[in-house]
Structure formats: C-alpha cells, structure tokens
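Two proteins follow. First one:
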Amino acid sequence: MKSKKKILIVGGTGFIGYHLAKSCIKKRWGVTSISVNRPHKKRYLKNVKYLYCDISNKKKLNEKIKLNYHYIVNLGGHVNHKDKIKTYGSHYNGCKNLSDIFLKKGIQSFVQIGSGGEYGNRKSPHKENFYCKPNSHYSRAKFLATKHLIKLYKEKKFPASIIRLYQVYGPQQDLNRFLPIVIENCINNKSFPTSNGNQFRDFIFISDFVEAIFKVLKSKKSKGQILNIGTGKPIKIKNIIYKILKITKSGKPLFGKIKIRKDENKITFPNILKAKKILRWKPKISFDVGLKKTINHYLKRANK
C-alpha cells in the first residue's frame, strides 16, 4: 500500500491555499497549512492541520515544522506590498527560510508561487526567458526568491519549480480584489469608482490554477523551471465590468474616477506555451463560465 502523500501549504488560509487544500483533501492527502492568520470561518477545513507562524522568522519556523512532507507549495507572503520590510521579509526571506529547512529533508517537490510582475514593464505576451526588471517591492522580492531557487536547483538539485501567476479568480476570494469589489457593488446596486478600464489583464479560474499546481508537483520536467500560468488571452477591464453589469442587471461604475499609475502596464498577459508543453496542461474554464460561477457564489452569500 502506498504511503499517504503529505503536503505543506504555506499560506493555506488564503484564497488559493483554501482551494488547493480542498482539492488535496479530495485526493486523501495529509494537508498542513502554515500561515500568520487563522482561516476565515468560511475557509476553515476540518481535515487540515493549521499551524501559525511568520515564515520570515527562521527559528520559529524550524520549531513549527516537525513532520516530513512530500510536497511544499509556497503561497505565503505579506499582503500589504507598500510595507517594504515585511514584503521582502516574507516573500524573499520567507522563501529562503523554507528552502533552507527542506533542503535536506528529501522532499519530492517545492512549488514557489511567483508573479507575472517579475517581468516589470516588458511587453506582453511575457515569455519565461525574458530578462526581468521588476519595478515594485513585491515583484523584486518575488524575483529574488526565483533566482535563489533556480540557483539551489542548479547547485544542489533542490526540486524547486516557479509558477508565475497572473489574475486568479473564483468563489471565496477576498473582497479587496478587483472582481469581488465590482461584483459586490453591482449586486448591491451601488456606485463605485474605477479606472477608465482600458487596461488588459489575464484572468484564470481557480480550478484551472489548482490543476496546474498539481501538474507541477508531479512533473519531473518542471524542476528548476519557471512556468507562466494563465490563459494567454487578456480581457479588457471595461468589458469585464460590462459583463458583470449585464449578469447582475445593476451597479453604477464611475469610469475614470481612479487614475491609472504612470508606470502601470496597460496590457499584461503571459505566453503559456511552455506550461502546455511541459505539463500537458491548459485552462479549461472560459472566462464567461468562470465569471458566472463566481457571481453565483457571491449572490448566494448575499442571500443567506
């Protein structure tokens, strides 16, 4: 009989971590989450072992991690990216601390969740072999973590893979993100400020993203690799807002009330050919289908 797979999800109480943990439970894996905060009531999963620790504190992290795991997925990191010290501490030092701890523990796979922001102002579609020039504390910290893990793979065969994500969306996402903000305001027929909506962004549904993580965990070819995960099909922000208005039949967007930053990329999306080839993966959920599922979730929540 095969031994039960054990996974440590760093940031397991967050939106992606919750959905990943839920899918791991369905596979009958042993799931441990480590995070700073306790899960929201709606994101609590009874079959998950919850640990609480700041991953930037190596001593405490070492004390918390007692078990051996087959897989590590690092979704952790400080949410307020304006705080430079905490952003670098969690997203870069936290990643270094985790890789140091698991370097000699014989793990099968370490998946680091990076960011499309690591490419900086490079023109889309982004390719993994682009020279990166990140332009924020968050994206620089992510890029330093990427470089550290690639070096560890080359020098010590540490089984790390880096996923660069774009906009992941779906049910249970925090209400401070773009889609939930628009959906909630439209459901409640409120006026809300927005930019002119002329930016293009890549949105991938949560189930497609979680499937990509599983593929990376199991893939030998993905070790030491950077992989863009998205749809490769950017959508205009204004069109997304109109789609939500059409489905909810309410809401009053105030276009142009939020100024676009001068350094903001107007068009951001990935080339995903490498992920398709190495992982034999591709997104299955169209944006229209995913959006309806997401809106239905928030409607049910509002009606409870």
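Second one, unrelated to the first:
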Amino acid sequence: MTFFTIICKNLLRRRTRSLLTIVGIAIGIGAVVALASLAWGFETTWVRTYLARGTDMIVTKVTSQSPIPAPFAQERVADLMALPHVVQASGLLTDLISIEDAPTVLVFGWEPNSFLWEHLRLVTGRWPANDNEKTVVLGSVAADMMNKTVGSSVQIETGTFTVCGIFESSALAENGAVILRLPQMQRITEQDGKVNFINLKLAPGTTQPQIEELRRAIATKMAGFKAFTAGEVAQNNTAIQVAKAMSWATSGIALFVGAIGVMNTVLMSVFERLQEIGILLAIGWRRSRILRMVLYESIMLGTAGGVVGSVVGTVTVKILERTPLLQGKIQGEFSVFLFALALMISIGLGALGGLYPAIRGSRMQPSEALRYE
C-alpha cells in the first residue's frame, strides 16, 4: 500500500464528512470565481465599449468616479475641439432607466452624425432621421429582452417612442442598450443642453507625451474636469472598485468558513485514528511523515473543493448573465489566471485548515495514542 493510497483511504472512511467539507470549500471558491469574474467583466466591458467606439479619451467632471456622472453644459465640446491633437469631440448623455417591464436599461443620447455611430451595424430598420422624430434604435440584446421589433412602441420616462431600427455592436454594453439622438435624450431627462461625457478622437500617431500635454491643457482650461483613457475610466470608477472590494470581502467570509470546515473535518479524523497513529509511530513512522499524511489529506480536500468551486462559479456567472437584471450589461471575465488563483487559494485553504490537526497528530506520544478510546 502506497503513501498516497493510505491518504485516499483515510478520506474515504468518512465519505459524507469529506463530501460536506468539499462542498464548503467549493462554495467559498465558487464565490471567488463568480464575484471576481463579474467585477473584472464589468471593467472589461466598459473598456471594450470605449475601444469599439474609437474613443481615445473621455472627458467628464471629476465626480465621474460615480457610475453616472452629473451632467454639464454641452458647450464644453467646442472648447475641447479647440485643443491640439483633438480631431473629433462628441458629447453624449447616458442614464440608467427602467423601461416598461424591463429592469434598468442603459439609455444613450448621442450627437447626430458623430463618430460614435460609425461602429454600429444596422441589422434591420433604419437610423433616427431627425431631432424631432420620436424614434429610438435598440441593441439586439435589448430588443430580445424587451420583445421589441421595428415598429414597436417603447415607453421611456414620460415619452413614447417608436423603434425604427435594431443594431449590433462589438461592445456588449451597447447591445443591451437603447440609443436616441442627443436632443431627444435631453428632453426626456429634462437635461436640455447638457451631456455627462465627451468622447474624444485624437489625431493618428498622437504620442503619450502629447496625451499628457492634452490632459494638462484640459485641467487648466476646464476646472473640475478630467480626461481619462478607456482603461483609466474603468480603473477610476468608484462603482467598479466597490464591486471588487465587495467581491473579495464576501469571498473572504466564505473562505474563512471553508477553512474552519477543513480544520474540523481533519481534526475529527485525527482523533478517530489516534490508535492507528500510535501504531504507525510505534512501528517506526517518523513524526514528519505523520504530519505530511494529515496535511496532504487536508490539501486534497482543498484541491477537490477548488476544482468543484471553479465549475460552480463559472456556471453561476453564465446563469446570471442571462437574468433580466444583468443581460446585455455585463459579461463575466474568465482567464487562466483566475482559475489558477482559485486553485491556489483552495490549496492554501486546505493547508491552513489542516495545519493544526497535522501538528496535533504528529506530536502524539505512541503510548498516549494507543490508550485513546
């Protein structure tokens, strides 16, 4: 009988207890995978959205760390167009609005004929014709979610609009969104003449020093405003940072409970096998080998929990992506790094939970262990 076989048999002696321990660890690891994936996916979704639009920089108020920044005067677009390296500047108004029976939906108001429209692919219908026409276009996901087709009516705030087109975008957030011409969006949100983001397209070949120069010029000319690149907007968004912090806090609690479960299972296993441990010590097993045997048992429990938890977390995210609340707004971000991290945490969890029982079992005196009943 090999050393590994002994470890496996020890775990299988109490199958139910071992299984419950694996489930406890799997819940913790599943929380890590699911919550981290959603938090990272939220960040990646918005980075991809800006890149798909061809946006090089985003300008908004410093309070843009909130998910939806406060609106400001649309005249700022002209101020930015006068700066060096800026080829195009387009203001937009964004809000989260509950539409009919659907939960909150991203609604964009884009300047007509701006570069923001260029990356969209019209699937059916047409684009809004003028600023007075009460029409909207829906992303393909939003159309499916609200069960709308070209010609359907959509109630947004106090206004009724007609769906004139359905589009597809390479950005998930836009596929789940509703887009109006900016003047219509300003009217229904009572924000006439205001936007809350300005997207900039810079001249080809603009260098990093020139971008930094442009940042300083914006900060000087427009007090209270700040310019971000696509990646920086997501990294500096308070909502994203809070989501990450909450994901790790929630996962930490679940992992702590899992560690306690491992320690309880392995400790009970050690106490149930004290006589066996005493015999092993009496026939010449070294204490270090006893310690390794118990520790490996807990690590195997942790590893099994990590594998199961990674699967559970992945399946959970895939289910959440299809719920009305998140559909078309966010997509989980999975990577080799995430799964490797989850496995490392689960192995560490098993080792931590089994450390005390392993030390306790290896320090038993053979005579004391043999007398234990």
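SUMMARY FIELD: The chain has two domains: 3-45+240-371, 57-228. The chain has a mean pLDDT of 81.
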